[in-house]
């Protein structure tokens, strides 16, 4: 989708220790160009989420994960391949980021116990194949809050477009994208109406809000791992109702 994100041309290590570079198309986010003929942000995101993931080398079907590690903020994520989305989300996201959070800030016993119960009861119940069926992995931006999208112009292209950048990419469930969008807000009712006309809420629709809360949990835990503070309480606030409702 060349009108949705900048193209990368080169990357590598700089002469200074622990410094790296990434050369991409120039994004003019203050462009005075008239709006181009491109699609809305909702339609572009829906198109991204409609494109099936490729089959990774060494496998015979699309998998959940990514060929390389990606970062969400300063967190280096574990994107090792899994055939089950519920397993990937439990092991590679929720339990993984909880270990980092505890390592950085402590409070291990109560947080770890809640996360372990959530990973073994709530996640299989809400995200397992018996509930959602066989999820088809699609490309996820992974960190789509208001600071990572804008209207602007990619150098060399005509007109202003809706653009995204600074991704935390993974092949996963399309609704996973919506967790951080829900967390920080900024997407109006027209956006959601247009998006869901193309990508309907997964069945069972009555559990949609609970799935989004579960997906938001990763980002609350990640922010706690990075910044500490009240993000821990926000994560606990999400887990409580989910555990009472689905924790057995």
Automatic annotation (TrEMBL):
Signal sequence range: none
Enzyme superclass (EC): transferase
Record's keyword annotation contains Cell membrane: no
GO molecular function, one term: protein-ribulosamine 3-kinase activity
Protein name: protein-ribulosamine 3-kinase
Taxonomic classification: Eukaryota, Fungi, Dikarya, Ascomycota, Pezizomycotina
Family: Belongs to the fructosamine kinase family.
Listed EC numbers: 2.7.1.172
Organism this protein belongs to: [Torrubiella] hemipterigena
Keywords for this protein: Kinase, Transferase
UniProt feature coiled coil, ranges: none
Reaction catalyzed: N(6)-D-ribulosyl-L-lysyl-[protein] + ATP = N(6)-(3-O-phospho-D-ribulosyl)-L-lysyl-[protein] + ADP + H(+)
């Amino acid at each position: 989708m060349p009108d949705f994100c900048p193209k990368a041309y080169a990357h590598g290590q700089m002469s200074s220790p622990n410094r790296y570079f990434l050369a991409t198309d120039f994004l003019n986010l203050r462009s005075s160009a008239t709006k181009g003929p491109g699609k809305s942000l909702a339609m572009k995101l829906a198109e991204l989420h409609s494109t099936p993931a490729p089959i990774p080398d060494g496998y015979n079907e699309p998998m959940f994960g990514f060929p390389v590690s990606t970062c969400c903020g300063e967190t280096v994520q574990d994107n090792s391949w899994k055939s089950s989305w519920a397993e990937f989300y439990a092991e590679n996201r929720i339990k993984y980021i909880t270990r980092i959070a505890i390592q950085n800030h402590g409070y291990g016993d109560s947080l770890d116990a809640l996360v372990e119960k959530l990973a073994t009861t709530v996640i299989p119940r809400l995200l397992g194949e018996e509930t959602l069926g066989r999820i088809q992995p699609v490309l996820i931006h992974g960190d789509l809050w208001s600071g990572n999208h804008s209207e602007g112009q990619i150098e060399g292209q005509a007109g202003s477009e809706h653009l995204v950048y600074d991704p935390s990419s993974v092949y996963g469930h399309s609704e996973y994208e919506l967790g951080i969008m829900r967390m920080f807000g900024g997407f109006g009712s027209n956006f959601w109406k247009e998006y869901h006309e193309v990508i309907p809420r997964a069945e069972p629709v009555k559990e949609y809000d609970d799935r989004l809360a579960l997906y938001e949990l990763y980002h609350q835990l990640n922010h706690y791992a990075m910044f500490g503070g009240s993000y821990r309480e926000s994560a606990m606030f999400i887990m409580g109702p989910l555990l009472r409702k689905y924790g057995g």
